[in-house]
Design a protein that fits this description.
CATH superfamily of the largest domain: Bira Bifunctional Protein, Domain 2
Strand order of the largest sheet: 1-5-6-11-10-9-7-8
Shape: elongated
CATH topology of the largest domain: BirA Bifunctional Protein, domain 2
CATH architecture of the largest domain: 2-Layer Sandwich
Number of domains: 2
Distance between the termini: 52 Å
Largest sheet: 8 strands, mixed
CATH class of the largest domain: Alpha Beta
Strand content: 15-25%
Number of strands: 16
Length: 416
């Protein structure tokens, strides 16, 4: 019988990889809580319209990458390809648009049918944050600062560069969009097939194209700064002042875009050179109109998301695995005392394990293999006198400890 393999583009999180994954989530939860964010958990699948509306029918995600299926009731459902749409839907359906702003943090799996590569999978995992109901550039700066804070706590801030851009307000973007269409139409025959398809519906996406024939045309393409309204320019100026006040280093990259209609003003990416060509590890921007797409009111918002797998790859060191205290019963007759002692340690928050069988040598070998700092030896005499022999496996010292004092003694030894 052949071995059953995981589906292409998926992977198991076990051992060190799992510890790295969980470390990223735990650090993100800790940092975002300092900024007043609470965790929201939305379903891993939604009605297809949730993502088709939010991402746009012409986007690559909707047209090429979404995992859609029809359930037994005939409804079209989709595994979530990103987290923002579900958060905005949850804001509306839970009646939270009346109590803004809302600060949401999320972590979990996302699904996209794309070519697997280093740090990218078809089932991948993200952390993300959405600040819903604010329209000030200082909120944008704080969101970026929070993302930077997470990267710093993970020890990878020195490995990334913050790239920043503005998409202006609606009026700025409309004028810029018309100028881009006019410019690229003159070179339509030289554009890639994807960019020709985007030209009328989504010309901003051409600026983000990786196709060489498209990149060659970008140097002379119309720039947003030529079409910025005074209000949009003021927002952009205030954002950069605020980032300077937060002491967040950045560089302006005019080619960062979010080609969807609801993005406005701030867009940004934290980029590394350590993961190959696809170097973005945390990215986001300001958006408007998305909550309205879910049936709610106009709610200006800003958010970002980061790939957990990619962040985990950048960690300098793997989080250490927890090590247990190991209880070694020296005969079957002491199992009752051994098991009650084991559970008492656990109830008091101490990681403990037990060597079930084998002679003393094999049981000690097991304790050493687990890197246990302490071994608790219980024989028939110890069980009768309600004591254990505590052997320090690092120093080799051994002491007799009453069961009533065992928790305090173990905590004292582990604290050293």
């Amino acid at each position: 019988m052949s071995v059953v393999k995981p589906v292409r583009g998926t992977h198991d999180l076990i051992g060190e990889e799992s510890r790295r994954h969980q470390h990223v989530i735990q650090v993100a939860k800790k940092v975002t809580s300092l900024y007043g964010f609470e965790e929201w958990t939305t379903p891993v699948f939604e009605e297809t319209t949730v993502f088709a509306r939010s991402l746009g029918e012409t986007s690559d995600v909707v047209s090429k990458e979404m995992y859609c299926f029809e359930d037994r009731g005939g409804d079209s459902l989709t595994l979530r390809p990103e987290g923002t749409a579900g958060i905005c839907r949850a804001l509306v359906t839970n009646g939270l648009t009346q109590s803004l702003p809302q600060k949401a943090f999320y972590a979990g799996p996302m699904f996209r049918y794309e070519r697997p590569q280093k740090g990218r999978y078809r089932q991948f995992h993200q952390i993300g944050a959405e600040l819903l109901g604010t329209s000030t550039p200082f909120a944008d700066a704080e969101m970026i600062a929070m993302g930077y804070h997470i990267l710093r706590e993970l020890g990878i801030a020195d490995d990334v560069v913050l790239e920043l851009n503005t998409l202006g307000d609606v009026a700025s973007r409309k004028a810029w969009r018309e100028a881009l269409i006019s410019y690229f139409q003159a070179f339509q025959s030289k554009l890639s097939e994807d960019s020709r398809n985007r030209l009328e519906k989504n010309p901003l996406r051409i600026l983000d194209s990786k196709a060489p024939e498209d990149r060659a045309l970008l140097a002379n393409a119309p720039a947003l700064k030529e079409h910025m309204t005074p209000e949009a320019q003021n927002f952009w100026d205030q954002l950069r002042v605020a980032l300077d006040q937060f002491n967040i280093p950045y560089k302006v990259n005019p080619y960062i875009v979010r080609g969807l209609d609801y993005y406005s003003h701030t867009v940004f990416e934290f980029v590394t050179t350590k993961l190959g060509a696809q170097g973005t590890v945390l990215a986001g921007g300001r958006y408007e109109g998305l909550v309205e797409e879910m049936g709610g009111p106009a709610v200006p918002s800003i958010g970002w998301a980061a790939g957990i797998e990619r962040l985990a790859l950048l960690l300098e060191q793997s989080p250490k695995a927890s090590v247990p205290i190991v209880i070694i019963p020296l005969s079957d007759d002491v199992h009752q005392v051994a098991f009650s002692t084991l559970q008492d340690l656990r109830y008091h928050g101490i990681y403990a394990d037990i060597a079930y069988k084998g002679n003393l040598r094999k049981q000690m070998e097991r304790a050493n293999k687990l890197n246990a700092p302490l071994a608790l030896l219980i024989g028939e005499e110890e069980a009768q006198r309600q004591v254990v022999q505590v052997k320090d496996l690092i120093s080799g010292e051994q002491a007799e400890v009453a069961l009533t004092d065992l928790v305090a003694h173990c905590n004292m030894k582990l604290a050293k």
